[in-house]
Amino acid sequence: MAATLGLVVAEIFGGILGRSVALLNDAVHNLSDVPALGISYLAMRWAQRPADTEKTYGYHRAGTLAAFTNAFVLVLLSLWLGYEAFERFRSPVEVVESWMIWTSVGALAVNGGITLALVRGRGDLNLRSILVHNFGDALSNIAIIAGAIIIHATGARWIDPLLGLAIGLLVLWSSIGILRESSHILLEGRPLDLRVEDVARAILRIEGIQEVHDVHLWSLGGGHHALSLHARVPDMHLDECERLLASIKQVAMKEFSVEHTTVQLERAGLPAQSGYVMPEPVKK
User: Fold this and answer.
1) Rounded distance, CA 208 to CA 185, Å?
2) What is the pLDDT of residues 111-132, one digit of tens each?
3) Cα angle, residue 171 at apex, residues 170 and 172 outer, rounded to 5°
4) Model's pTM, two decimal places?
5) CATH 1.20.1510.10-classified regions of the chain
6) Start-end ranges of CATH 3.30.70.1350 in the chain?
7) What is the full DSSP assignment across the chain?
8) Which CATH superfamily is domain 2-186 in?
9) Which of 6-15, 56-65, 85-94, 225-234 has the lowest average pLDDT?
10) 196-283 falls under which CATH superfamily?
11) How many CB atoms sit inside 10 A of residue 249's CB?
12) How far apart are CA 172 and CA 70, in angstroms?
């Protein structure tokens, strides 16, 4: 975070002295990394807290909420960057290429180092939001360096606002994907790599299960999934019911990595009452 703050200060001075809107836009972009990194760090620490009487599922969605917040801020920021670049198209100014190049080289070293450090954690949505953020920063630095060289060689002043607009579009594109995925989790959507029908049919393979319906599958965030369902079984002793419950949980965990499974057993032959997710019971 300290390195990012130092980078922001350097890019602001470089953008002012070099009269580069692309560099100033990149400084504002990097400035948004500071609260993003702070929120994400707190979210990761918070997500490790165990469940309690207030948050009975735990705090796994803290990271998802942080990713949603970061992405929403970046969407607004990218729109502002696009507006500033458009204004510079209308009123282009001379830029100092040397300030653009050397400031961006230092920024590239910082952003590139952060990006490489986060690659291993790209499976976590919260860490991926930071990874995408810094990877975009690194690409922006490379583009500014290349643009400064072209401006020096050709005198084409429109390249600077064009780079600013491209940076804004890059931020917008990457942020919308994270915003869509994080909102899907916050709305208790189905994990994208799982299908309700596959889970139901896997459970129907267990001996003694005659029907499965009212199946609900959702993500708690951070790769943690939950499942609830109704299963029809014949009349049996309570010990046999316990065996079936254990088998259902084992299948859910082993085949679908579902950590929290809630099952309601019902006597076979009763009228079908299925839920919204699966309007018809899945039968063998």
Assistant:
1) 33
2) 777 777 766 555 565 566 667 7
3) 90
4) 0.68
5) 2-186
6) 196-283
7) -HHHHHHHHHHHHHHHHHT-HHHHHHHHHHHTHHHHHHHHHHHHHHHTSPP-SSSTT-STHHHHHHHHHHHHHHHHHHHHHHHHHHHHHHS-----HHHHHHHHHHHHHHHHHHHHHHGGGTTSHHHHHHHHHHHHHHHHHHHHHHHHHHHHHH--TTHHHHHHHHHHHHHHHHHHHHHHHHHHHHTTPPPTT--HHHHHHHHHTSTT--EEEEEEEEEEETTEEEEEEEEEE-S--HHHHHHHHHHHHHHHHHHH-EEEEEEEEEETTSPP---SS-SS-EE-
8) Cation efflux protein transmembrane domain (1.20.1510.10)
9) 6-15
10) Cation efflux protein, cytoplasmic domain (3.30.70.1350)
11) 17
12) 12
46: Cα separation from own chain's centroid: 17
